[in-house]
Design goal:
The chain is of the alpha+beta class. The protein is built from ten helices and 13 strands.
Length: 378
């Protein structure tokens, strides 16, 4: 049986396709200011999303982000033009996510997969609607400029695509769904058949809690079948992507800082010994401030989502963090911070040693002056 043959009789009765683009736009975002600015502009308040199907004591945002609804955008999907809902979500650690949701119902499974691939192609670089992301980001930066603390023009961004189905035209279990539809073309975006090893790798991270729900994760796409229309998994995947963006930003920041730090140390060491103590101390204070700043923000990122009692959601969240390499990038940030900490500790020691040598020199000079004065008097 060829992939897709078993799915011809199965239709997506209700579903959507969600395309995310995530950006680091500032050192931090003043969320109350975002709410105030949006209320002044639209006369509608921003919302603080929460997890709908999970008790607050089981999972919660560290600091709930602010979500706003933007104007819909038109997308060229195949030979037709469809309208996508647009929302932006602001995180206090400086990341904004922009999401386009295209509703897709009454579609045979292969047609649903094709629509998802068409939407992805239209929004990617070189696609017919690729410029929509830049326009939306520009709007966000302009409208909320006053809420951005130390705005950044970072080139770091992430994208993610989710196929979400809440109902098929007949009731199916997760096990039956796996056998009746081919998830691989949706998860890979490929039209050519994949090898068995590649297929198994794509389907490796598969989760179900009830018999009739299913989540399958890959690096840049996910499929979610949720008859109860529970959006908690979508929220978890967004937070994991936001954490990746912020960790990547600080990883690149420290990558650029380390060579600069070594150059400054080398120049400082070439100065005269009389000036070295002050310059070592100034450089040490600068590096200490950088470490404190990065540590504060990375702690906010680490605590962006707190999952305590919901074991299933915790498993999906942990799998997403591992898949997106958030822990690997975070470990790289920690290693670079440790190098800078050791460096500024050494600089303080150098500064102290330079001051001690200067004091010794001053004392020797004063003693010599005293001796000379004594000899002059006699």
């Amino acid at each position: 049986m060829q992939p897709g043959e078993a799915a011809r009789g199965l239709k997506v009765a209700a579903g959507s396709i969600i395309a995310y683009r995530l950006y680091d736009i500032a050192y931090a975002i003043d969320l109350p200011a975002v709410e105030r600015l949006w209320a002044e502009r639209s006369r509608a308040p921003g919302t603080r999303p929460r997890f709908s199907a999970t008790p607050p004591e089981a999972v919660a945002f560290g600091v709930p982000p602010v979500e706003i609804t933007l104007e819909p955008v038109s997308l060229a999907i195949g030979a037709t033009t469809l309208w996508a809902e647009v929302a932006a979500r602001f995180y206090d650690f400086g990341v904004v996510t922009i999401a386009m949701r295209l509703f897709a119902g009454d579609l045979a499974w292969p047609d649903y997969v094709e629509r998802m691939n068409q939407m992805d192609g239209a929004l990617r670089e070189g696609g017919s609607d690729a410029g929509a992301w830049a326009r939306l980001l520009g709007e966000v930066r302009t409208v909320f400029a006053a809420a951005l603390l130390r705005p950044a023009q970072s080139a770091i961004e992430e994208d993610y695509l989710i196929g979400f189905v809440s109902a098929f035209d007949e009731t199916v279990t997760a096990e039956a769904l796996r056998s009746r539809v081919d998830l691989v073309p949706l998860l890979s975006g490929e039209r050519r058949p994949l090898s068995e090893a590649a297929r198994q790798d794509l389907l490796r991270l598969s989760f179900s809690y009830y018999t009739d729900d299913l989540v399958v994760l890959t690096w840049d796409r996910a499929f979610i079948y949720e008859p109860r229309q529970d959006s908690d998994i979508i929220g978890v995947l967004e937070v994991a992507n936001a954490q990746l963006v912020e960790m990547r930003y600080y990883d690149e920041l420290l990558d650029a800082e380390l060579p600069r730090m070594y150059d400054l140390i080398e120049r400082t060491q070439r100065t005269t010994r009389l000036l070295a103590s002050r310059r070592f101390a100034d450089l040490a204070r600068r590096l200490s401030g950088l470490v404190a700043e990065v540590t504060e923000l990375t702690e906010k990122v680490d605590n962006a989502l707190q999952v305590t009692e919901d074991v299933y959601l915790a498993r999906v969240y942990a799998a997403a963090l591992d898949l997106f390499r958030v822990s690997i990038v975070g470990a790289a940030v920690d290693r670079k911070l440790a190098i800078i900490r050791d460096t500024y500790a050494s600089l303080y020691q150098e500064a102290s040693a330079a001051r001690a040598e200067l004091m010794e020199a001053i004392i020797v000079i004063l003693i010599l002056i005293e001796i000379v004065l004594a000899l002059v008097r006699f």
